[in-house]
Amino acid sequence: MSEIAEMRPKEPDWETVTPEELAVYQMAENRLRASAEARVITGAPEPGAAIGWESVAFPDRAVPVRVYRPDSGEVLPAVIHVHGGGIVGTAAQSDWINSHLAVHLPAVVISVEHRLLDWQTPLSAAADDGWDVLRHVVENAPTWGVDPTRVALFGESFGGLINTLSALRARHEGVDVRAQVLVNPVLDLTSSAWSYDSVTEFSAGPTLPLSLLRFVQQLSVPSGADPRALSPLHADDVGGLAPALVVLPTADPLADHGRVFATRLADAGTPVQVSEYRGLVHAFLSMPGAFAQAEAARTEILEHLKAHLAH
Fold it and tell me: 32 in a domain, yes or no?
């Protein structure tokens, strides 16, 4: 693992980073996350899952997706996954868990390679990528070999934010979502985002420093945009959403985002289960080679999805 640490590009100073520096860092970091060498940390794919890149075409753009298919001739549930990172990240970093879900649910798992944040690409663009892929899969279910009545959302960190926005939009537009999984999600981009106790206690953590959180917030909600509209914690109504599993490492500055949101879901009548992993840091699920407890979390996610995606 020390070799991987040596390969990792140095993070820029998030308070002074330039567009050119960010682009260079994004390319280098994502190349590493997708590499075979990184699998000592990110985990090996599950045997039995076919994994490949595809492209979903829209009138104004094409969105890459990484698709995980089991060896099955049946019409299967669909799991729409969004990776973490925000300014960095690639679906390939989640091969370990997504291939496992594909084989053991079984399901077709479609991981959205959304546009990464920069000064020209706010959260609204990344959220549109997540929503448009979800809607496309539901509307073109036979092409994907999936059952449009058995669809789940699964998001990690910033991907949890994108998919929670999709869940709210799906309820509004009548798209049936049967289950959702939120793993250490970002859920508040307002001025109160960093006032939670967990942010204060763990802002110097190794995987998600406060300086990075503030930078992601700055890019997510440019001047003139409404941060509440992009913050599920401030949604007017969170009732009527799909049953949720919220997975929280406790040594994570974002842990209280998940806790408060889970309470709001429960108060609104949305079934919710919270599972906390003591002493673990943000993004532990993406690093099974470093955190053995990622396997237990993966099992919980699998069982939650099985329960809600059954015929």
Answer: no
Tens digit of pLDDT for each residue in 144-194? Answer: 999 999 999 999 999 999 999 999 999 999 999 999 999 999 999 999 998
- Whether 252 is catalytic: yes
**Assigned domain for 289 exists:** yes
Contact predicate 87/170, CB 8 Å: no
Q: How many CB atoms lie within 10 A of CB 181?
A: 29
- Residue 119: both structure tokens together: 């000064």
Among the listed residues 157, 220, 231, 286, the single catalytic one is 157
**From 282, 286, 304, 308, active-site residue:** 282
Catalytic residue among 95, 128, 132, 252: 252
Tens of pLDDT, residue by residue over 6-57, are: 778 999 999 999 999 999 999 999 999 999 999 999 999 999 999 999 999 9
Query: Do the domain assignments include residue 64?
Result: yes
Mean pLDDT for the chain? 96
The question of whether 99 is a catalytic residue gets the answer: no
Report the number of distinct structural domains present in the chain.
1
**Residue 31 counted as domain residue:** no
Amino acid identity, residue 95? D
Are 17 and 215 in contact by the 8 Å Cβ rule? The answer is yes
pLDDT at residue 3 in the model: 65
Predicted TM-score of the model (pTM): 0.97
Q: What CATH number has the domain bearing residue 220?
A: 3.40.50.1820
Residue 121 backbone class (left: φ over 0; alpha: ψ -120 to 50; beta: rest): beta
The domain in which residue 211 lies consists of 43-309
Q: Which residues of 114-152 are buried (b: 16+ CB within 10 A; e: fewer)?
A: bbbbeeebbbeebbbbbbbbbbbbbeebeebebbbebbb
192 an active-site residue?
no
